[in-house]
Amino acid sequence: MTASTPSEKTVHANGIDFTYLEWGQGPLLICLHGFPDTAHSWDDTAPLFAEAGFRVIAPHTRGYAPTATPADGDVSVLSQAKDLLALIDVLSSKESGGNGSGKAYVMGHDWGCYAAYAAANRAPEKVIKLIASSVPHMHKPSLTLKQLKKSWYVFFFQLPKLPEKRVPKDNFAFIDRLYDAWSPHWAERSEATADVKRALAQPDGLKNALGYYRSFISHQSKEQKDLMAQVTTVPTLLFQGEADGSVDCRQHVHAHECYSQLDELVMMPQVGHFPHRERPAEYAQRVLRFLEK
């Protein structure tokens, strides 16, 4: 097994069996993927962090096969945050190869950011440092007309039944169109969707993925809203692609009010919604400088 080849393992946390990919040994770095994506989102960057001396863990998040579908169908951000905190406890334990600290560095992309923000706000003592990509904080959102247009799919996903019929057509061509629109300068984007399509094609796979959006828009609990609205206090590094077809750069205009320890907002020209996949070496280099401070 080479440094770039992860081992695939399973762990029970917060009532769910999680399948995760693991690279390297050292301080724990947990990487959370978003939509439409899987744990393989980190295949190009994780080996770079492993080579730098980190133990990198990339779980398939709840409802994304081969991780289990929660019995109650709950895929809310609040539950995702609880998942992350439980994974930190389990994976940092000496029994799992950790140092028993109960802490981890956390990296999130897209939905993984929301889970990371909520977890860091709920238990800041467990998150050493946070790296977030492509999703703004909810403490002081800046909703513009341009962003509403970019978020058309969010509203489409709220419709009953139609997304379940439309998204899988023609081998999930809908997903290809999202990648084309979100990361127009990423030449390899068409190669990145195979794992996503396989996960969405599993029983309840698409239902669970759509549930992330439906629970966030239509069924947010007060506890979740309050948690997401808090200022994040752990040291944070934030990335945004300037060519992101999903998130308008101006969504971060109030970033310095949302994080009490914001290291930097890194704006990446000619980069779309997946900075860690589109410029893995550049992304990893900047993250490592932040982690090693």
Q: Could you characterize what this model shows?
A:
Helices cover about 40% and strands about 15% of the residues. It has about 290 residues and is of the alpha/beta class. It has a single domain (about 5-290), classed as Rossmann fold. Strands 1-2-4-3-5-6-7-8 form an eight-stranded mixed beta sheet, with helices on both faces. Helix 11 links the parallel strand 7 (about 235-240) and strand 8. Helix 2 crosses helix 3 (about 110-120). It starts with 6 loop residues before the first strand and ends with a helix. The model has no long low-confidence stretch (mean pLDDT about 95).
Outline of this structure?
With 293 residues, the chain is of the alpha/beta class.
* Category by helix and strand content: alpha/beta
Low-confidence stretches: none
How widely separated are the two ends?
A: 31 Å
For the record, the CATH class is Alpha Beta
Number of folding domains? 1
In DSSP terms, counting alpha (H) and pi (I) runs of 4 or more, how many helices?
A: 13
The average pLDDT score comes to 95
Computed CA radius of gyration, to the nearest angstrom: 18 Å
Number of strands: 8
Q: Estimate percent helicity.
A: 25-40%
The percent range for strand residues is 15-25%
CATH superfamily: Alpha/Beta hydrolase fold, catalytic domain
